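REQUEST ID: PR-0412
SUBMITTED BY: lab tech R.K.
PRIORITY: routine
TASK: structure prediction, single protein chain
INPUT:
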Amino acid sequence: MGCSIPRSFNKTSLLFINSIFLLAVAAVLAAQDTSASVSGEIRGPRGATLGPLNAELTRLEPPHSTFSLRLDDEGRFKFTVLPPGTFTLTVAQLGFKTLKVKSIVVASADQKTLPPLRMDVSPTDMPWLPIPEFELRAGDQRFGNLAGRVMRDEVRPLTRATVQLFCDDLICGETKTDANGDFLFLNLAPRDEYSFRISHPGFYSWQGTDHTAFEVLAGYDATYEPIVLPRRHRLSRAASTVR
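STATUS: complete
OUTPUT:
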C-alpha cells in the first residue's frame, strides 16, 4: 500500500522539514562530541619568544596516547580532539631546561587553558642545575607552591630538617621536613630566584649558590629533586687528642 503526499504539502513545506531535520542531526552530533582541548603559551627568560618548539601531551591512562604539535612563533599551543583523562605536557629544547607539567586533568568537552609557562636557559656545562616538575595548582592562580625533599643518603629521608626560604638575602619562610623528608611552602609570589638554607644537627648545612635558584610560577606547584645533606664525621678520640 503506497503513501501519497497531499497536494497542499508543497516544496516549501518539504524544505522546512528538511531544515528542521538537519538542525536536529547537528544538535545530536554536537552533544555526542566529547573531545576536549588544552592550550597555553610558553615564553623564554624575561618574556622573550622562543620560536617554534615541539611539545608533547601524554595521556596517563591506557592506551597512554601521545599527542604532538609544534608551537607557533609566539610560543602558543593548542591540543585539540583530546579524550578525557590525565595528561603530562613535555617541552624539550637543546640549551633549555626541559619543561614538564603533570596532572593536567581534562574532562569531556573541556576547553582547558594553562597559566603562562616559561622555559629557562640551561648551560651545557651545568647539568646539575635544579629542574622542577610542575603540576596545576588548585586555588588562587595568582600564586604558586614550592616543594622539595631532603635526604640523608640516596634512599633514606631526613626528618625534622630545618628549611629556610630566602627572598634575595632575607628569610621569607621556614619549615621542617616531614617523615618522608618532604617540605612545602604555600602561596608564594611568582619569581625565579628563591633559594634555600637547609640544616640539621649532625649534618653539614646546604646553601644554594647563584646558579641554584628555585622558581615559582603562578598557578603551579613546583617540586624539585631531592637534596642530600652529608653527615658530619666525628673525629675519633685518638685523632682528636693533642699530643
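NOTES: Residues 27-32, 238-243 have pLDDT under 50 and may be disordered.
REVIEWED BY: pending
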